[in-house]
What does this fold into?
Amino acid sequence: MDSTQTTASAAAATGGVAAGGNGMMITQSNDASPVDSSATTAGTASTPTDDQKQNLTQVINSIQKTLGLLHQLYLTVSSYNVASQLPLLQRLNNLVLELDNMTRLAEKCNIQVPMEVLNLIDDGKNPDEFTRDVLNSCIAKNQITKGKTDAFKGMRRHLLEELEQSFPDEVETYREIRAASAAEAKRAAQAQSMLPNGDVKVKAEN
It folds into this structure.
């Protein structure tokens, strides 16, 4: 075995470093290939949804920390004396720093809050009342729309009855056209839901 092969074997046995026959150092790298490292990086990459959740969590934690600092500041001010001047200044500085941190974290969150919710909070009310009011408003509008729809259906039925007495042939032709149009629309809907193998698409239940 020549000196080069001996040196290479020694490098492999010692984990990557050995002296060559001409005095040069021969290294053998055990690092992962660039492909492996890039695959690892891609596997640990976070999605935008995860980033938004993380940003929101950071803002919530900052708010809770700010509330704690305000409580500590309240306790310090309520029992203030000469000896508590330094702790008071420290807590004021901590509060300012945390408010600045909260502002920077909030810039990463894209959350739109209705003004009504903020007004309820300012009035000392439960923000869930906004959701309840919105649902009640939707129910009321739905009832109004349903009433209008029923009124139009009743008027249409009444008009057809009156027209049928005066123009029976025309009304019969109209009914046939409506029936043919409805059947054609039904066939078109069924054709769109057909799969290439002849099966019918089944709508998933939510």
